Amino acid sequence: MRRRDREVKNPEEILAIMRKCDVCNVAFFDKEFPYVIPLNFGVEYENEEFTMYFHSSIAGKKLDLLQDNNKVAFSMSCSHNLITGDLACDCTMEFESVCGNGTIEILGEEEKMPALTKLMNHYQPGIEHKYDERLFKVVSVLKLNVNEIYGKRLKKKGM
């Protein structure tokens, strides 16, 4: 990372940034260009490893691409605040972001509910989540095992 002064290394701080974000952009390998799609997600940090969860239809482009290559990159950002100046060069943006890469797998039927609960807890923590069992037949749940993760932030002093 070029701007070491903005780097976030502490895993708990990275997790806190991730919990503020509501969308994760995931880049899949496609033939000529990457295929990037915004996804809702859940995240956990256990045994010094980050794991992310996404839901999907049981068919579609991202699942087709995963069959050929399950390596992905991801990014998310939050806490945006434009800082203006007298000149365009004086403008900047406060932000917090997390980027990384890893491998995705499609979870088996017995793993879907616990993973979906982790995803739902990201958006509605502290409540019991109930599911329609019929929907489990038409949903895939993806698990991203994170290999590398990077946090970054810019917060102007006094703001």
UniProtKB/TrEMBL annotation:
<dbReference type="InterPro" id="IPR024747">
    <property type="entry name" value="Pyridox_Oxase-rel"/>
</dbReference>
<dbReference type="InterPro" id="IPR012349">
    <property type="entry name" value="Split_barrel_FMN-bd"/>
</dbReference>
<protein>
    <recommendedName>
        <fullName>Pyridoxamine 5'-phosphate oxidase</fullName>
    </recommendedName>
</protein>
<dbReference type="Pfam" id="PF12900">
    <property type="entry name" value="Pyridox_ox_2"/>
</dbReference>
